[in-house]
Sequence to fold (134 residues):
Amino acid sequence: MTKSFIKYSFFSIYMIVVIMTSCDKNQDKTIANATINFYLPANNTTFSEGDTIKIEADISADVSMHGYKIYLFTPGESEPQLLVDRHTHGTIIYVRNTWIVPSTVGKGKMEIEIIALVDHEGQTVTAKKEVVIQ
Fold:
């Protein structure tokens, strides 16, 4: 046997072992126990242009999470407005944000949605509050 044959044989065996033992992306994943306690604003609070909306919530999970996003949208519409995109880590995340209602925002019944990014695999948990913009 030649040295190159032995070298390629070992390489081939190595690659087979690596492929067979690599992680399976489709395997069952443990779902993290995550919750959002959404405190402010209160449901159905009315705001006007120039008002400051306090957005407060506590997000908790049994794993270290990867942040949160806050959206404002009109129910039934597909294009929400991103208010906050925060990348942070921890098993408890304290959401303490404010947003000033601009003149360009739509009027009527709206929803504020917090989406907690539990992991980088796409697992999320959400909570919503309805508000009225006049």
Remarks:
- Residues 3-21 form the longest helix (19 residues).
